[in-house]
Amino acid sequence: MTRPVSRTTTLRRLGFAEPATAAERLDVEVLAPYLAAADAQGVPLPEALGRVADPDHALLTLLRLAESAAGTEHEQQLAAILADDAPGRRRLLAVLGASAALGDALVARPGAVALLAERPGERPVLDLAPEDERERALRAVGADPDAAVPVATVTGEQGVATLRRTYRRRLLEIAAADLTSPDPLDAFPKVSASIADIVAGALDAALAVVRADLPGGATGVRLAVLGMGKTGGRELNYISDVDVIYVVEPADGLPEPEAVRLGARLATALARAVSAVGPEPALWPLDANLRPEGKDGPLVRTLASHLAYYERWAKTWEFQALLKARPIAGDLALGRDYCDALAPMVWTAVERENFVEDSQAMRRRVEENMPAAEADRQLKLGRGGLRDVEFTVQLLQLVHGRTDEAIRSGTTLEGLAQLAGRGYVARDDAALLDRHYRFLRVLEHRMQLHKLRRTHVVPTAEEELRRLGRGMGVDGVDGAATLEQRLRQVRREVRHLHEEIFYRPLLPATARLSADDVSLAPAAARARLSAIGYHDPDGAIRHIAALTEGISRSAAIQRHLLPVMLGWFAQGPQPDYGLLAFRKLSETMGTTHWYLKLLRDSGGAARRLARLLSTSRYVADALARLPEAVAWLDDDEELAPRTIEALAAELAALQDRRTDPVGRVMAARYLRRRGLLRAAIGDVLGLGDHTRSVRMITNAADIAVRGALRVAVDQALADAGLDEAPSRYLVVAMGRLGGREMGYASDADVLFVHEPLPGADPELASRTAVAVATGVRQLLGQTGAEPPLDVDADLRPEGRNGPLTRTLAAYAEYYERWVEPWERQALLRARPVAGDPDLGRRFEALVDPLRYPRGGLAEAEVRELRRIKARVESERMPRGVPPNRHLKLGRGGLSDVEWTVQLLQLRHAGEVPELRTTSTLDALGALHEAGIVPAEAAGRLHDAWLLASRLRDAIVLGTGRATGQRADVLPHEPPELEVVARLLGFEPGRRLDLEEHWLRTSRRARAVVEELFYD
Fold it and tell me: Which CATH architecture has domain 644-851?
């Protein structure tokens, strides 16, 4: 047998916090007729109460209302509303459950319940226009809405009481419509606008009343009331200060001083009519402190006086405040004149010095001055609060609105939608800010509705949070916690977007441009482009037109990116090429959703991209082939060097997902391409020293060789019809690859080693090893989507005439019998890079005695190395190239330093273990530490080698030429030399300083080489 559910259990299930008390109240006799009538219609009253924000308080207020209406003509009206589950009952109970203040007002005047009843045929409350509210308010005090200067016939205290009652009746209707809307967030803009409209109506009615109380109705003066802040933006709260500014002008020949005096009397009386103590409670404070000079300034001014002040004395924040100025009462034509006259100042205020920075500083000061105890619960001023959204929208409007009249709305949500529509804010970001702003404002409304008091601090009491949560549609036993969690999420996301947009670097940069520069008009653009360093302004204008013409969203975003980026391109040595590369990149990216959004919103991606494209053709070409790398510019972590272990893991993952040889080797070459681009971006942006880039380039080559060896082995086995490899394979890095000091134009010098497995056919093993070595060279050297890596095996025994690969035993036999001094020297950089690790260790053990000989070199071997070096200098120097400009083979160049260091390694590494390194600079440092090379000499060699290496890389980065011998020659041509100089950190126009720096550095290094190498 099922136990009957108790009444208190049912009430608790319906949402009553105190079901026992609620049960007692439901038994009070005065409610019996209403309960019975509702039951008869099949819509029990307790269930209806269970839908409201605070069922307990709604029931208590309903009980008081029933007692107040008992025995009066209102009793039947209340019964009719409560009898049926119609909009009237839903509105009444929603008000009682959400607003103690409005509930008390209904108890005091139960006849006002009629305002909530169903009225078929009437326009919805939230759909009335401002004109409707003005007419309603003026007629309530007996004024003619069509009169040029409406004057009330219901005057004095009675007129004031009437306008206040009219306002509160309309506020009740708005609140009821708001609280019963299917989607409060969707209804919010209409609710806020309706409140602003009834405020404007009340001010017009009050002005009509106070005019009636002045002699002659004060018709000799024109007074306009300008709404500011949320009043001007038609986005008012239920209870708020009403910010206004007054403008006065004489009429009917009245002298200006008299008009100002009379206008001040009207404004003062107007404030008393709505704010002073009286028979009816005051409506709200009327705040005129946003006027010129604030509290210390005159209450009213003429239009000319306002203009004079704003032209000479106004501060940045005052123009931001004027963005929302709107005529709301009095002489609306004068108010429009005021707005029209000040609009040019508002929309050019951004051109004031440090306008954006001042606005940003003001926002920070507001946060800093907020009481710490309120910071986390302050809905208006706190981090992630309403001001974050409002300040973000206003700053963007002021920066971009001077040339774009389509984004000048004084209403926050309308302005945000306009900004998104014109491309100044990402649509997703705007949608999120819109949704969150509505949530915060509706929560603010629900907080203020309870007692009709100004408050922006979210309560901490659980019962209050529960009421707010239910009023926001958040119900259940954990409603309070759920509301808190949602609020934290909203504020976190609002704050993130605020910081991302409000502090974006494009804003101050755009603000510093003139309106002509921002507009990109051809005539003004041509003059500006020529002035800031573009060599082909007409060509630049064609690129600009191609990027900005049309009505697409991309064109809209480009229109506000380019004015700033043109200046950033001009800061590089190749602005014309930078713009061209940007156009090509933008066309490649097409409609890719993140590309332009990143450049517009990022903290520095756009500026970095401009610097890269106008400085480095190598990077520009690489980005054109890998455009998704633009996303790296927003995240330093993406530009950080990858360890060889991380790259190896990524290589394995990429190759394991592919089966065809081409795809597998392209994965390895793709990783190299990314490594080269990361290194190049870091070099151009100055993210690290030279060591950083050479290690990144070397690691990228290492990975490419490893990946190619894997594929070459599989391919060779497949071609030979073998299931298993007959040998172990090893690739030994030599030269700059072995020394981990590769540049952008470096080849990969290698040796190929193999070792047949026990029982394998030696002939088959040899053929297969040759196929593997050939495969590695071909796979990496092919041209195509990925940059080729030339694999050079000429340092092998017998050079080009020797076999491409040898067994470890064959290497041992050759080195034992035939090793030449230059081969010992080459082996100083030998480093196993790919293949069998054990075979690599045994190869190093084989060559260590050769490159680190005990007792050093014989004198004959030293003479041979000197002879070869001299021959290289005389025979390999390109014809027509001055020796002091060749960075590799010239005097004091790379070859000089490396041969000197390597000769000293061969002579001393057998006794000094610290010299056993493949790195030139590490070996040079060890030579100094061992006392073999004096500090000054070591310093000169170090400086020359490092400068030559940086110059070679800078030539490749600047010109984009990664092959050929020109990368080894210091340019003569001023444009190329300028680019190289800028990449090495020289100021614009100081290219000759770079030239002199190299000549001096190499000359000093050559003197050391003469002493140490040639003895």
Answer: 2-Layer Sandwich (3.30)
